[in-house]
Amino acid sequence: MLKKRLLASLIVSNGIVVQSIGFKKYLPVGRPHIAVEYLNYWGIDEIVLLDINATLEKREPDYDCILECAKYCFVPLTVGGGIRTVNQIRNVLSAGADKVSINSVFLENPDFISEAAAIFGEQCIVVSIDVYGGSVYSYKDKKTLNQSPVIFARKAEQCGAGEIFLNSVDRDGSKMGYDLDLIHIVTESVNIPVVACGGAGHPAHFHKALLVENLSGVAAGNYFHFTEHSVIVTKAYLESQKVSTRLNTYADYRDNNIDVNGRRTRKSDEVLQSLRFKDYPQEVI
């Protein structure tokens, strides 16, 4: 049985990782390569690096940023933003990415996915689908397209995409949990891996999403930045709920309880006292 994946979504604006709220409000977090380095230490399974300015500004992907992040990344790295040509995909992969995320150009020209998959392989091509109010949303044009995400998901699969990154704009930064109805209808309509993003605020939200049998993984951005020990605590919670994840660190927090804010509860004074080192006075002869 394949283990469920936890992905960190790093939203980059003007060279800085930002916290995104509803695709409208952005608050600074820090430098991309620092965020990548920490997430690797914390045990994340994959990282998605998305430059939200590149497409809007009609410029090339930031290859220097990708190259710098790749130095600190020892898990699969997906890069998106500003990718419109096969040559750009080649440059992004050469800079250190393992996969590319395609969004705007897929909405305009689905055949580009077929071309890219034929050259680089389906496993390399991720189609990102933004959804708002039940309809596909165009980030570039800032509007809904009055099209079902199921139609676009099936089209992405037909064109040769190896994975779908399903992003709920409604839930972005809300801490309300994932859009389970959306996840159900999309995962049931395709036979390729689907990763859901948008709304995580507690380990229980990851668990509820991963109860959807065909969901391959869950992604989050803000949650991993602002909760202590976020990755390991989330994986420990999932393990306690019988969800199989990659948890290979001695500090696994399996015996910790989680509070309403998704943080570890304090151990009792008795337990803390038992964990203290015993003091043995120096022997005098």
UniProtKB/TrEMBL annotation:
PANTHER family assigned: IMIDAZOLE GLYCEROL PHOSPHATE SYNTHASE HISHF (PTHR21235:SF2), IMIDAZOLE GLYCEROL PHOSPHATE SYNTHASE SUBUNIT HISF/H IGP SYNTHASE SUBUNIT HISF/H (PTHR21235)
Catalysis: reaction(s): 5-[(5-phospho-1-deoxy-D-ribulos-1-ylimino)methylamino]-1-(5-phospho-beta-D-ribosyl)imidazole-4-carboxamide + L-glutamine = D-erythro-1-(imidazol-4-yl)glycerol 3-phosphate + 5-amino-1-(5-phospho-beta-D-ribosyl)imidazole-4-carboxamide + L-glutamate + H(+)
GO MF annotations in UniProt: imidazoleglycerol-phosphate synthase activity; lyase activity
Enzyme Commission number, as recorded: 4.3.2.10
Family listed: Belongs to the HisA/HisF family.
Function as written in the Swiss-Prot or TrEMBL entry: IGPS catalyzes the conversion of PRFAR and glutamine to IGP, AICAR and glutamate. The HisF subunit catalyzes the cyclization activity that produces IGP and AICAR from PRFAR using the ammonia provided by the HisH subunit.
Lyase found in the keyword field: yes
The protein, known as: imidazole glycerol-phosphate synthase
Subunit (UniProt): Heterodimer of HisH and HisF.
Record key words, sorted: Amino-acid biosynthesis, Glycosyltransferase, Histidine biosynthesis, Lyase, Transferase
Amino-acid biosynthesis as UniProt keyword: yes
Listed InterPro entries: Aldolase_TIM, His_biosynth, HisF, IGPS_HisA/HisF, RibuloseP-bd_barrel
GO biological process, one term: L-histidine biosynthetic process
Listed Pfam families: His_biosynth (PF00977)
Functional pathway: Amino-acid biosynthesis; L-histidine biosynthesis; L-histidine from 5-phospho-alpha-D-ribose 1-diphosphate: step 5/9
